[in-house]
Design goal:
Helix content is 26%, strand content 23%. By secondary structure, the protein is an alpha/beta fold. Strands 3, 4, 5, 8, 9, 16 and 17 form a seven-stranded mixed beta sheet that branches. It has a six-stranded parallel beta sheet with strand order 12-11-10-13-14-15, with helices on both faces. A two-stranded antiparallel ribbon has the order 1-2. The radius of gyration is 20 Å and the shape is globular. The termini are close together.
Length: 382
C-alpha cells in the first residue's frame, strides 16, 4: 500500500509499506477513504514530539471502510463505513470505565499519562496512522462507529478529532450562561472551540491569533470578536481592558507547543527543543483569565519542562482543566448538533489533496500558505 512516512523533521514522503494485518482477534483493517492533516501533526513534523521514529506513518483523523475483521469482532462487518476516534483504547480498564478513553491504561507501554493515539509517535504507543491506504484498528468493537447514513464523509472525518477536541475544550471550560470566553488560536480546534462556546451559553467569544485569514474565519464561522496579537503591545492588558479590567471568565488554549508571541520562548522551545513547548499561550491564558476563572488547555505539549507561571495560577485561584479529548464521548451530542443544522464541520475545510501530494500538503500547512486552515487527504486505495 501507499503511505505517508516520516523521514526526519520537515521530511515526509509517500512510500510503499506492507498492508497491515490482523494481529489480535479484536483487530479490524480499515481501507481509508478520507484522512486529514491536523495542527498537532505539525508538532511531529517539526520534531517537537519525543520518540517520533523514522518510518512512522502519521494521521489520527481518518474514516474508511472495514476491509477485514478479526475473529472476535462482533460490532463491525466487512464493508461497514466507519469513523475512527483518534484514541486507541480498550474500553474496560479503570480509566475507560470512567469515560477517560484518552487515558486508557492498556494500550501504551511507553507512558503513564496519555493512552494510545494513531500516528502520533511511539510516545503514544507507536500505532501507525491513517495517512495511508489502510490502517490497523485495535479494539475494533470499542472505538470505531458506523457513520450515520445522513452524515457527509467530510463532516465525519472532522469528528474523529478536530471538532470533538474543540467541543471538549469548551466543555472543560465549564462555561456558564453569559460568560466571556477567550480562545487562543484560530486553527481548526480553536475555531470549533469558539463555535462550541456559543452552544454552551457564552455571552461573548473572543478569538486571538496573528494570521488575518484565520481571524477572518473566526469571524465568519465562529461569529467571534477577534484580536491580532501582533498589532498590540500587550495582549493581556488589552484583554483586561475589554473585560472591565477583570479578565475573561474562561480562556481556552488551542495553540500548544509552538505558540508565537515571545521570540525567546519560541526559540528555546520550538527551535532549540529546550522546553516541552513554548509556554506563551498558556501564560497568556493564566494572566488574562479573571481570578477564580477557568483555563482549558487543548493545545498539545511535549512531556518536558515548560516555563509556566504556575505560581500566578495558584495565587489567582484558577481552575486548570486539561486532557486529550475522549472523542467518542462527545459524539452523541455532536451528532445531534450536526443533524439539527447547528454545526457544519466541513465549512472549515480549505484544501483537499491526494495522498501522493502529502509532502506538499504538510509544507503548505506548516508555512501557512494559500490561506490553509484544514487539509483533507484522499488516498487512492482501490
Amino acid at each position: 500500500m501507499r503511505a505517508m512516512v516520516y523521514r526526519g523533521p520537515y521530511k515526509v514522503r509517500v512510500e510503499d509499506k506492507d498492508v497491515p494485518r490482523i494481529e489480535h482477534p479484536n483487530d479490524a483493517i480499515v481501507r481509508v477513504t478520507l484522512a486529514a492533516i491536523c495542527g498537532s501533526d505539525l508538532h511531529l513534523y517539526h520534531g517537537m514530539m519525543p520518540d517520533t521514529r523514522v518510518g512512522h506513518t502519521f494521521g489520527h483523523e481518518f474514516i474508511g471502510v472495514v476491509d477485514k475483521v478479526g475473529p472476535s469482532v462482533q460490532n463491525l462487518s466487512v464493508g461497514d463505513r466507519v469513523m475512527v476516534p483518534f484514541n486507541v483504547y480498550c474500553g474496560s480498564c479503570f480509566f475507560c470505565a470512567r469515560g477517560l478513553y484518552s487515558n486508557c491504561h492498556n494500550v501504551n507501554p511507553n507512558a503513564t499519562a496519555v493512552g494510545g493515539i494513531y500516528g502520533y509517535s511511539h510516545s503514544t504507543g507507536g500505532y501507525d496512522g491513517g495517512q495511508a491506504e489502510y490502517v490497523r484498528v485495535p479494539f475494533a468493537d470499542v472505538g470505531p462507529q458506523r457513520i450515520p447514513e445522513w452524515m457527509d464523509d467530510e463532516d465525519a472525518v472532522l469528528l474523529t478529532d478536530a471538532l470533538s477536541t474543540g467541543y471538549f475544550g469548551a466543555q472543560l471550560g465549564d462555561i456558564h450562561e453569559g460568560d466571556v470566553v477567550v480562545v487562543l488560536g484560530s486553527g481548526p480546534v480553536g475555531l470549533f472551540a469558539a463555535r462550541s462556546a456559543w452552544l454552551m451559553g457564552a455571552g461573548r467569544v473572543i478569538v486571538v491569533d496573528h494570521l488575518d485569514y484565520r481571524l477572518e474565519k473566526a469571524r465568519t464561522f465562529a461569529y467571534a470578536e477577534t484580536i491580532n496579537f501582533a498589532e498590540h503591545d500587550d495582549l493581556v492588558v488589552l484583554l483586561k481592558k475589554m473585560t472591565d479590567h477583570l479578565g475573561a471568565d474562561v480562556v481556552i488554549d488551542a495553540v500548544g507547543a509552538e505558540a508565537d508571541g515571545n521570540l525567546l520562548q519560541h526559540v528555546t522551545s520550538a527551535k532549540l527543543k529546550l522546553q516541552g513547548g513554548s509556554p506563551v499561550a498558556l501564560n497568556w491564558a493564566i494572566d488574562s483569565v479573571r481570578k477564580g476563572g477557568t483555563v482549558s488547555v487543548m493545545g498539545a505539549y511535549g512531556p518536558m519542562f515548560s516555563a509556566v507561571k504556575f505560581g500566578d495560577a495558584m495565587n489567582k485561584g484558577l481552575t486548570i482543566r486539561t486532557n486529550q479529548a475522549p472523542v467518542k464521548r462527545q459524539w452523541p451530542r455532536l451528532f445531534e448538533h450536526i443533524r439539527n443544522g447547528y454545526l457544519k464541520p466541513s465549512d472549515i475545510v480549505t484544501h483537499r489533496i491526494p495522498l501522493e501530494h502529502i509532502a506538499e500538503g504538510y509544507h503548505m500547512f506548516s508555512a501557512k500558505l494559500d490561506g490553509c486552515i484544514k487539509t483533507l487527504v484522499v488516498p487512492d486505495a482501490a
